[in-house]
């Protein structure tokens, strides 16, 4: 799963960082471009989910929120 720079050393995929005096290598730049592309899609999915009232006002216990998020995430696929 793509993550931002705050998740370094967590096992998640984070973008390459440049260091003083050393620019990113061409392969690292390409990796960062792909990372941005994937992360943007994930962030857009999260933003769409925030529009659903069931997730904003969800007060369910246990697995309820997990199932609600999965259901909302699948809704755009049902309309296609």
Question: How many DSSP helices?
Answer: 3
The chain-level mean pLDDT equals: 76
Count of domains: 1
Class inferred from helices and paired strands: mainly alpha
**What separation lies between the terminal Cα atoms?**
25 Å
Shape: elongated
Q: Measured on Cα atoms, how large is the radius of gyration?
A: 17 Å
In what range is the share of β-strand residues? under 5%
- Poorly predicted runs: none
Sheet with the most strands?
none
Q: Classify the helix fraction into a percent range.
A: 55-70%
Concise summary:
Keywords: Metal-binding. The chain is mainly alpha-helical and about 80 residues long.
Report on the structure:
This protein is mainly alpha-helical and 80 residues long. 56% of the residues lie in helices and 0% in strands. The radius of gyration is 17 Å and the shape is elongated.
Output the keywords.
single chain, 80 residues, mainly alpha
Per-chain topology:
Blueprint: H1 26-50, H2 53-56, H3 64-79
């Amino acid at each position: 799963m793509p993550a931002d720079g705050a998740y370094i050393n967590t096992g998640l995929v984070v973008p390459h960082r440049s260091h003083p005096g050393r620019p990113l290598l061409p392969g690292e730049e390409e990796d960062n471009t792909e990372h941005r592309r994937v992360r943007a899609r994930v962030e857009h999915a999260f933003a769409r989910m925030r529009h659903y009232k069931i997730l904003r006002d969800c007060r369910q216990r246990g697995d309820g929120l997990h199932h609600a998020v999965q259901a909302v995430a699948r809704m755009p696929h049902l309309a296609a």
